[in-house]
Amino acid sequence: MGIEQAHAKISAAIWQALAQSGIDLSTISREQQGVLVSTIADNLLVTVDELMDELDPPAEAAAPDAPTPPTDEQQLWSGRPFLSVGVRYEVTDDRVVVRRGLLNITQENYELIRIQDIDFTQNVGERMANIGDITLRGGDASGHLLTLTNVHRPEEVHNIIRRAVAAARERHRVILRDQI
Questions:
Q1: Which of 1, 65, 93, 132 is least enclosed, having the fewest CB within 10 Å?
Q2: For 48-54, what is the mean pLDDT?
Q3: What is the pTM (predicted TM-score) of this model?
Q4: In 3-state terms, what secondary structure has residue 54?
Q5: Which of 126, 119, 107, 99 is nearest to 161 (CA)?
Q6: How many CB atoms lie within 10 A of CB 53?
Q7: pLDDT tens digits, one per residue of 85-135
Q8: DSSP tag of 178
Q9: Residue 140 CB: number of other CB atoms within 10 A?
Q10: Which residue in 97, 82, 88 sits closest to 132, CA to CA?
Q11: What does pLDDT average to over the chain?
């Protein structure tokens, strides 16, 4: 479910609760009621996301026996999608890691030196919540595509990944064909 759908569902529940409460809202214009409901829904989404952060700590704290990157790898960023439990993203100086699952865990690794293109997108609702999607495209023959969805502060994370890709290419002396 996208953020707009979650917002719409919560807004509908708030409208229903207001109607069932019997509170007289006639002194407040319909437009102001809409602003009030929208603000409550926005704050409820943010609060639920914060609660989920408490329930879903970073992978290292949640599962100390889980495989961790080698000690020579430095973690540059770690986070999870907005309103998501069981998915965690991690960016190290060598790769992007996506861990999925609570009991059965799958891990997808994407080597930074294979990344050809990095984009991020935000629609209006996501921009208001400062979340967005980051898409990584591979430069190899497979043309692998990885999308990190509903990332907090996507522009900042995009820049972290972009700098990490450039540093990894330099460290491994990788030159792309379009740079020759």
A1: 65
A2: 79
A3: 0.69
A4: helix
A5: 119
A6: 14
A7: 789 999 999 999 999 987 788 999 999 999 999 999 998 888 888 999 999
A8: G
A9: 11
A10: 82
A11: 85
CATH architecture entry for 67-179: Roll (2.30)
Q: Which residue type, as a one-letter code, is found at position 16?
A: Q
Ranges in the chain annotated CATH 2.30.29.30: 67-179
Which pLDDT score is estimated for 1?
A: 63
Give the Cα separation of 27 and 14 in Å (integer): 18
d(CA 180, CA 178): 6
Structure tokens belonging to residue 96: 């992007």
Residue with token string 């990944």 = 161
Backbone φ and ψ of 56, nearest 5° = -120, 75
Backbone angles phi, psi at 150, to 5 degrees: 50, 50
- Burial class, 26, CB count within 10 angstroms (exposed 0-12 / middle 13-18 / buried 19+): exposed
Give the Cβ contact number of residue 143 at 10 Å.
9
pLDDT-based confidence at 154, cuts 50/70/90?
Answer: very high
Environment class of residue 65 by beta-carbon count within 10 Å: exposed (0-12), middle (13-18) or buried (19+)?
exposed
